[in-house]
Design goal:
globular, 484 residues, 6-stranded antiparallel barrel, alpha+beta, disordered N terminus
Length: 484
């Protein structure tokens, strides 16, 4: 199209200059013509995307008066703030009366009212209102949330809704056209178009640890505050991602947007619906991304990319597979992993108890081994919200040498710390718990026994953990709130 316009412009200019040119009767462009039609995909999507309004008391608003927050510096979660008309003085709410504190989007995934959105859209809200494309309104219940993936599952009491169709985010190609549908600045059912700019993009908050899941689809479709939790779809109108973050100096669109791929979304949402919490498996090794410098240093010539193993934890799948330091992981179940984000995405598709095949290189020779994935406790059990296994870490025995060095006679060490009650209490990785509620602990079974006793009691469900940090020798105590 651009070539055609330029050709016409040049011809007109030459004719105006007095140049007589004999044009052939018919002409054909060297570039084949094509048309892009987004209407079908948009029609399939707009009725499946909803507006989500959050309400909270002023003192309970987690985002402050400005709404939104910026955990990444230039990377923003674009949770919109309610827009106030200019020159209009807003009425002051009564004390402790919930007011609208944010605006986001969601995606209907079932005709009976299940809706996907971002965790940061619902976090801290006292009430959630869902507005459908036909302007009908419903109060929403939170079924489950997952901070690590920034996803949440809501439910409204409705029927006959228009759910979206899941697509395959792994089949998406860089350069492919996509549409983003959401409610930027409160403008309902807004559709923008762009292309997939990159896949398996990390925003840099997870440097090989266990804290968050990052393997975003990067796109240049325009997104703004209020788009959070909305749909990223292909030209068939199939969901390939949940819009979650933008790259911005201002909090508004600056060229790049990021969506959580459906490979992660489907697994997390299925777990939240079935169990109330995410069944998170772990491989059990620390890795760094292989680059040219590391490859030269380690004399690795067979591969140019992958995840270089730095250490292997006990009681893990990595240990069972026999992975060692300086092995290079290149594929999971036959799917290539060139970086840490891709490795996280592949592992996040599975639950504890699932078999996976890991392809890796050792001494420039390729190997493939199959093992069973475990949870953070080192076993294959599935958990339900409120179970002991949902406490958010494993409790490991400590050696006699460590006890002697620290001057203690018993204790268990916190390892594999994830989101949960232990982390919420402020406990850090490696902390050694010597007493729980004034009772000595020496094994994970001791901890579980005390946990079950507290949960069955009519008192407050709180564990008082006393212990010591082995690196500093400083003693601390923490209150672990187990909830209801």
């Amino acid at each position: 199209m651009k070539l055609k316009r330029i050709t016409i412009a040049v011809a007109i200019a030459m004719m105006m200059a007095g140049n007589a040119i004999a044009a052939p009767a018919t002409t054909r462009s060297a570039t084949p013509a094509f048309e892009l039609d987004f209407t079908d995909a948009a029609e399939k999507t707009v009725n499946a995307v909803v507006c989500i309004k959050s309400y909270a008391s002023r003192q309970a608003n987690p985002y402050g008066d400005q709404g939104g927050y910026d955990p990444f510096g230039l990377f923003d979660f674009f949770f919109g703030t309610p827009q106030q008309p200019r020159r209009q003085q807003p009425q002051q709410p009564k004390k402790n009366e919930p007011v609208q504190t944010g605006l986001g989007s969601g995606v209907i995934i079932s005709a009976d009212g299940y809706i996907i959105t971002n965790n940061h859209v619902v976090d801290g809200a006292e009430r959630l209102e869902v507005l459908l494309n036909d302007n009908s309104s419903y109060d929403a219940q939170v079924i489950g949330t997952d901070e690590a993936s920034d996803l949440a599952l809501l439910k409204i009491e409705a029927s006959g809704l228009s759910p979206i169709t899941y697509g395959d985010s792994e089949a998406v190609k860089v350069g492919e056209w996509v549409l983003a549908v959401g409610n930027p600045f409160g403008f309902n059912s807004t559709v923008t178009a762009g292309i997939v700019s990159a896949k398996a993009r990390s925003l840099g908050t997870n440097k090989g640890g266990n804290m968050s899941i990052e393997s975003f689809i990067q796109t240049d479709a325009a997104l703004n505050p209020g788009n959070s939790g909305g749909a990223l779809v292909n030209l068939n109108g199939e969901l390939i991602g949940i819009n979650s973050a933008i790259y911005s100096n201002t909090g508004s669109y600056s060229g790049f947007s990021f969506a959580i791929p459906t490979t992660i979304v489907k697994k997390v949402i299925s777990d939240l619906k079935q169990y109330g919490t995410v069944q998170r498996a772990k491989l059990g090794c620390a890795v760094v991304e292989l680059d040219a410098k590391l490859a030269k240093e380690k004399e690795i010539t067979a591969v140019k990319s992958g995840c270089l193993v730095k250490s292997v934890d006990d009681m893990t799948t990595a240990k069972e597979l026999g992975l060692q330091e300086d092995d290079v992981i290149t594929a999971i179940n036959g799917v290539d992993v060139h970086n840490f984000a891709q490795l996280v995405e592949q592992i996040s598709k599975f639950r504890p108890g699932d078999n996976i095949t890991v392809t890796y290189y050792r001494n420039n020779k390729q190997y493939s081994k199959t093992g069973v994935l475990r949870n953070s406790q080192g076993n294959t059990e599935l958990i339900k919200k409120g179970d002991f296994a949902d406490i958010g870490c494993a409790f490991m025995k400590i050696s006699d040498e460590t006890k002697k060095r620290l001057g203690i006679t018993n204790g268990v060490q916190v390892q594999g710390l994830q989101n949960g009650a232990v982390k919420d209490a402020g406990i850090k990785e490696g902390f050694i718990i010597t007493e729980l509620n004034d009772m000595a602990v020496n094994t994970a079974d001791d901890v579980e026994r005390i946990y079950n006793k507290v949960m069955k009691s009519g008192d407050e469900h709180v564990l008082i953990a006393k212990g010591i940090y082995p690196t500093t020798g400083k003693k601390y105590f923490y209150a672990i709130n187990l909830g209801e």
